[in-house]
Amino acid sequence: MARRLEQGPTGTGSPDAPEALGLDGLPVDPALIQAAAALDEDAATKRHAELADQIEAANKAYYEADAPLLTDAEYDQLFRQLVALEAAFPALVTPASPTQRVGAQLGGTFDEVRHRRPMLSLSNAFSHDELRAFDARVRRGLALPAAPEAAPDLRYVAELKIDGLAITLRYERGRFAQGATRGDGFTGEDVTANLRTISTVPTRLREGVSLDVRGEVYMPKSEFARINAEREEQGLPLYANPRNSGAGSLRQKDPSITAARQLATWSYQLIEDDAEAIGLASQSEALARMEALGFTVNPNRDSDLDIEGVIAFTEAWREARHELPYETDGVVVKVDAFEQQGRLGIVSRAPRWAIAYKFPPEQVETVLEDIVPYVGRTGTLTPVAHLTPTKVAGSTVARATLHNLDEVRRKDIRVGDHVILQKAGDVIPEVVRSLPEKRTGAEREWDMPASCPVCGQPVVRDEGAVRHYCANPLCPARVGQEFGHFAAAMDIDGAGWAVLSQLLQRGMVKRRGDFFRLTVEDLETLDRFARKSAENLHRAIHKVRRRPLERVIAALGIPQVGWTTAIELAHWLATEVPSGDDWLVRAAKLLRDVAASEPARFEELEGVGPTIAGALATWFAPGGPGEGVLEDLADAGVEVELPALRVAAATGPLAGKSVVVTGTIEGFSREEAESAIRAAGGKPAGSVSRKTDFVVAGPGAGSKLAKAEELGIPVIPPDGFASLLAGQVPNDG
Predict the structure, then answer these.
(1) 190 within 8 A of 177, measured Cβ to Cβ
(2) Is the pLDDT of residue 94 over 70?
(3) What is d(CA 269, CA 250) in angstroms, rounded to the nearest whole number?
(4) Cα–Cα distance measured from residue 17 to residue 31, given in angstroms and rounded to the nearest whole number
(5) 514-559 pLDDT, tens per residue?
(6) How confident is the model at residue 511 (pLDDT cuts 50, 70, 90)?
(7) For the stretch 65-99, what's the b/e string if a residue is b when 16 or more beta carbons lie within 10 angstroms of its beta carbon?
(8) Which residues pair with 685 in a beta bridge?
(9) Among 120, 137, 317, 687, who pairs with 600 as Cys (CB 3.0-4.6 Å)?
(10) How many CB atoms lie within 10 A of CB 345?
């Protein structure tokens, strides 16, 4: 038998005890400690390493890539196991353990900001008994009587826990000076420019005070659903939840991309430079103070609570939260009085005076009655599960997307199956898995139809991709969805499906520009339309006749092109096409010429690779789906607002230079090489053109190297990359 690691005092505690504590005061499930204490040294060390690796990988994916590997419940369970293991074997605790740190390491994309005070995490509670155990710890820490009724001066504030990205905002004399993410708790990323695009971040306070405010940036459920619907139609992977979508939107190098996403904030912690002079004594007073200064503070909170009042608050919001326009995954409970908070203090990563109660994940069982393919605006056939109507997360669900045939196969979902249903991000119905053990033999596998269910034309599958689609550009389903997308993206108020279907069926709208050719008299002929409603719709159409260029591009419905690419294409066009009369027509000619003769130029756009460049080339090419569309809009009187020209970096050795990296560069991944180019003031490009200044070519370089040599562009060898970043062009380049 291997020697046991030295066990902590909690490792031998009674499993019947109401709670146990780890070395740093974190609550631990006694059953988990008992299981950990039964391990020997080798097994405990191995299990600790496994848990730490899993949690570190999950942290990196969640905080840095905004792409979670685990559900919140799965992560919490792993973390609790790690805390229990360290409580049983204190020798396993090191500064590198996930239990001793907050968040994740910084990704290097933004400048670093050192927090004036650490941004800590919170311990979690998953039951009402754990909340009562927290209350008992607080009373012991404050030397108060064990009975709650005998400690009337201990009061709590309960606030909804927002599932977003933690931020800190710095104000100097009432003006917004700097904003940063939490990062690793001590150092965050400077996202000031992006935060300025969020309407709920005040640029100027109602008083000229200096302070820090902490809060959460979040993405509303409606925006999350809109973006995912757009991505699904484009055949792109869906975002997992609003939290990661919001975090990814905030951590963009281009603030205009952040601005295109309808992000919002809640503020919940005030650190005021002259707080003592103001006389703030509690969290509830600080929340009121923040509201008075102009911050958005969540109104769904309560104060002056004992622990039973806190529990009642959690129960009241357990179901009611589903009606909120944002996602909340629990309740944050804080000791109200600052004096008591100070006496309780903090542990390594969390305050002793606060805890986060997590709502249990809500999943239900139902029956998948049928799978029906729906045709979208790009022709994509999406299998949709028709379910026995079931209530989940506050609403009755009868439909859920299954995304594509590969997903149906991966989850082994069959018609007639009993399935587990949940709402991804509390928003989008999702079939989690089937229950094969409940099959009777009557279930049947589903396959994608060979012909379009609407027009009967053959269904095609992209080579090497998961998308099946109807290739008929005149398919009624495609046409209807395309025009519906255009009306919605252009913000034509009142042009819903009932109106749009009439316009299409009567032939009143055959091209996008026809929306803007409609008269009041035309609209008055529609069913259930009187003169007043016709005038209102005509006014709504006229109102959007002039729109930002990126919105018009996004409204075109180009496959693979969402808001981010639309913004980049708008900036590229504004640079390439001089302003003046007939701008839209001249821009259309440039797009047509590039698509026909130099499609790789589309890869000059930030974030555009061969797939999106190919989609743009196909759409704008002569004879393609986009032929004549922009000219038609111009003829109908549509005008575009051009984005402000981006100013090239004024500093840096590669300021204003376009650099292409191809092949293998020792010591650099492709992403690291591109980040280094940006840090030096340059622009990493995906393809070689006459506008390329340098090509860095390592082993494995192919057509890009040949193109550079053909155009006479300087080629830098791998060992000259460092010199180039320093502004020195190697002699052999």
Answers:
(1) no
(2) no
(3) 20
(4) 10
(5) 999 999 999 999 988 989 999 999 999 999 999 889 889 989 988 8
(6) very high
(7) ebebebebeebeebbbbbbbbbbbbbebbeeebbb
(8) 660
(9) 687
(10) 11
Domains of the chain: 9-100 (1.10.287.610), 124-358 (3.30.470.30), 364-470 (2.40.50.140), 476-544 (1.10.150.20), 548-641 (1.10.150.20), 658-725 (3.40.50.10190)
Q: How confident is the model at residue 22 (pLDDT cuts 50, 70, 90)?
A: very low
533 vs 565: CA distance, rounded Å = 36
Q: Is the pTM of this model over 0.85?
A: no
What Cα–Cα distance (Å) separates residue 122 from each residue in 105, 182, 300, 451, 503?
A: 18, 13, 20, 54, 55
pLDDT confidence tier of residue 13, bands split at 50, 70 and 90 = very low
Residue found by looking up tokens 């986009």 in the block: 626
Catalytic residues: 161
Helix axes 221-233, 242-250, angle to 10 degrees: 90
The upper half-sphere exposure of residue 14, i.e. CA atoms within 13 Å in the direction of its Cβ, equals: 3
Pairing outcome for strands 428-434 and 418-424 = antiparallel
478, 375 contact by CB (below 8 A): yes
pLDDT tens-digit profile of 344-395?
Answer: 887 656 788 999 998 876 788 999 999 999 988 778 899 999 999 988 876 7
SS (H, E, C) 623-640: CCCCCCHHHHHHHCCCEE
| Of 419, 428, 356, residue with least CA distance to 393 | 428
> Does residue 54 register a pLDDT over 80?
no
98 alpha-carbon distance from chain centroid: 24
Q: Which token pair is 472?
A: 């008929």
> What is the maximum alpha-carbon separation in the chain?
91
